[in-house]
Fold:
Amino acid sequence: MPLPPRRVLTLSEASNLWGITVAELGWHAVEGTLTPSMVITGVVAEIGEEVEVAAGRSSRRFHGQKTLTGLHDLIGADVWPAFKGGTAVVRRLKPSKPSGFVEFRQPANEVTVTAADLVIRFTECERVAATYGLARPEMVIAHQAVEPVRPPRTRGGALPGYEWDRIWVRVCTRIYDEGRPETQAELVNDVLDWLATSGGALPDTSTVKKKISMLWREIGAQ
Structure:
């Protein structure tokens, strides 16, 4: 049985894929064309959003503090020095909503980042490739196209080998911490990215989508 497909590209892999330098990747990250990510472990962050309280006035609404571990998206301008071969200091993450904020509180309110820490999510590479007609990431990660071995279904229809209890905990935690995603695809990709970094058997996209479809019908139209 092969290892589950890797869901990220390194900066070197992405630059080779699209024929540009790592620094050029950094410019696209700064301009918002491309979203970089990194793995964090045990970082306490304060989560909330900016809400309009009057015409032209906004106020911060705090949702509390959470300990974050796993693959998270970054704001390109914050890690620009890392793309140039230096060290960046990160004090926040890219929120799932434009009005949101996720700011570090511990350890010491910041995390140092180098180019070796940065990756591009596979789904983000696919989005950029589709938008701008570029080479797709499966050209770099050949085993990405390998279908996982599907264990036989039980009478109840569940797929043994996939830790659905853990997956549902992740779905609930994601919605509680960061709010309802804008699309069902965003929630599916979050589950797959989390599984890729936390270990365990990795279902294919259609399997996860089918599993959470009933939940999404309840929350997606709100």
About this structure: The two ends are 41 Å apart (CA to CA).
